[in-house]
Design a protein that fits this description.
By secondary structure, this protein is mostly helical. Among the domains are: 1-32 and 220-342, no CATH class; 34-116, no CATH class; 358-425, no CATH class. It has 27 helices and three strands. The chain has helices spanning 7-16, 23-27, 39-51, 57-64, 68-73, 80-93, 102-111, 118-124, 127-137, 145-158, 167-173, 195-206, 209-218, 221-231, 240-244, 247-259, 261-268, 274-287, 294-307, 313-323, 329-341, 352-362, 367-383, 393-403, 414-425, 430-442, 447-455, and strands at 143-144, 178-182, 188-192. A three-stranded antiparallel β-sheet has the order 1-3-2. Strand 2 (178-182) and strand 3 form a beta hairpin. The longest helix has 17 residues, at 367-383. The relative contact order is 0.09.
């Protein structure tokens, strides 16, 4: 199975689901570089976007004229995600943009991708619609409709606006900035239309402290944690709009977050997201010109105290290690004792590596015991993958092999047992190889093949 995502979205997901921090997910990451795509592959992607879009015949003919598809494919800013956003923006604008002027709009958008949504957001949307877009469009997950509308009204109230949101505002945004669906519990849930739109809206917050302040006072705990992670590069590359923001805008955003820090941590307190937010905020403040102040530290230490029982052990460890160089010895010892007290005798195998990381960071004396417990759990899993809740032997082997990296002592016969089981799992599949070879052969094509492909676009 191949899963595709952006790096910062994966980082946000790891804050919610700690299993994604395991060795199989970390070591199997592959970065897809657009520059490695052949012209034919890029052309096929563009063709598919156009073929399956609601754009009419006039828009498609405009791409065929003067070989505009070749200009698009070879453009320095070619990007599949951008193509999706360009088509959506053209449909939203209507008129010539979605008709015979589409190819010109496509190439102009490649020239200046940052301008793609700015006019629509700033000119064509009302204040309530912008509030909804910022609150729902910057998240990597579905927001419940009722929760979102309440948050949007809070957003407007913080800006002393008498306006209020309505279902009509959601109708305007659907298909342009947002997707609306119905979940298994028959709730209407909302998320960003695509990652390109999310990038734009995150950039809007980074460049406008008034909007950012209202967001920090209105958004849900999970949304707040998500945004804080996007602005942090603690364990991954920060989001593109944050990196592309001017230094002045970033510094202003950091000051806004510091101003609202007590409120932020109060909202996050008792939720699974608080520890990761503490670690990320510490990183954000440390890297800013203003630095981490004593007042910031006091709030973050208090947040960490409330995170010990609420957050995942790996997030608690990350937060403790981040704050450790700044904490007073007494605070550090008290919190460390609380963290250790939260470890149970039947600690989940996935939590033991975080405990080991913490003990090694502080030079603790429980390392040998924790390593023994980890190896005992691995041995138990090797007897039957279902013993520890794994869904398959292949999944179990990938996960437990990664856990060996946390053991510095004697591994016994466990590596040989894993290797023996892996050999049985990895017998070659001729059919799979044939499918891969056919895919590779189909991805190579000449310029004439590109012309033939687009001449068939009707």
């Amino acid at each position: 199975m191949v899963l595709t995502t952006r790096e910062y979205i994966l980082t946000a997901a790891r804050g919610v689901y700690s299993t994604l921090n395991g060795e199989p997910f970390v070591k199997s990451n592959v970065v897809v570089d657009i520059s490695s795509y052949s012209d034919f592959q890029k052309a096929h992607i563009l063709y598919n976007h156009l073929y399956y879009s609601p754009l009419g015949a006039a828009a498609r003919r405009s791409v065929q004229r003067e070989n505009n598809y070749i200009k698009a494919v070879r453009h320095v800013n070619y990007n599949p995600r951008l193509i999706e956003s360009i088509i959506a923006a053209a449909l939203a604008a209507g008129g010539g943009f979605a008709s015979d002027g589409f190819a010109r709009f496509l190439l102009q958008s490649f020239d200046s991708p940052g301008n793609l949504w700015r006019d629509v957001f700033q000119v064509e949307l009302s204040e309530p619609q912008r509030a909804i877009a910022l609150l729902a469009g910057t998240s990597s997950f579905f927001e419940d409709r009722e929760t979102l509308l309440l948050a949007a009204n809070r957003f407007l109230e913080t800006q002393s606006s008498a306006l209020r949101v309505s279902l009509r505002d959601l109708d305007v945004l659907e298909g342009i900035f947002l997707d609306i669906d119905v979940d298994k519990r028959s709730r209407h849930v909302i998320r960003p239309k695509n990652p390109g739109i999310r990038d734009f809206l995150v950039g809007c917050l980074a460049g406008n402290t008034r909007h950012l302040g209202a967001y920090l006072l209105s958004a849900s705990p999970r949304a707040l944690s998500d945004l804080i992670t996007l602005y942090s590069s603690r364990d991954a590359t920060a989001s593109r709009p944050w990196k592309e923001a001017s230094k002045a805008d970033r510094e202003a955003s950091v000051s806004t977050m510091a101003t609202h820090l007590p409120h932020l941590l109060g909202v996050l307190n008792g939720t699974p997201y608080v520890a990761r937010a503490v670690a990320d905020l510490c990183s954000i403040f440390e890297k800013s010109t203003r630095g981490l102040t004593s007042a910031d530290l006091a709030h973050l230490v208090s947040g960490l105290c409330g995170a010990v029982k609420a957050s995942a052990p790996d997030d608690v460890t990350a937060a403790y290690v981040a704050l450790l160089p700044h904490m007073r010895d007494g605070d550090a010892r008290t919190i460390l004792a609380d963290i250790r007290a939260s470890w149970s005798e039947d600690m989940d195998i996935g939590d033991i590596p975080a405990a080991l990381d913490l003990e090694r960071a502080v030079g603790g004396d429980s390392i040998d015991d924790l390593e023994y417990r980890l190896l005992a759990n691995i041995s138990y899993a090797l007897e039957d993958y279902s013993n520890l809740g794994f869904s398959s032997r292949s999944e179990m082997l990938d996960v437990v092999n990664g856990y060996l990296d946390w053991v510095e002592g004697d591994l016994g016969d466990i590596p040989s047992r894993i290797e023996e089981m892996r050999q049985v799992e990895s017998e070659p599949d001729d059919d799979e190889y044939d499918r891969y070879r056919e895919f590779r052969e189909a991805s190579v094509g000449s310029e004439n093949d590109i012309h033939s492909l687009f001449h068939s676009l009707t």
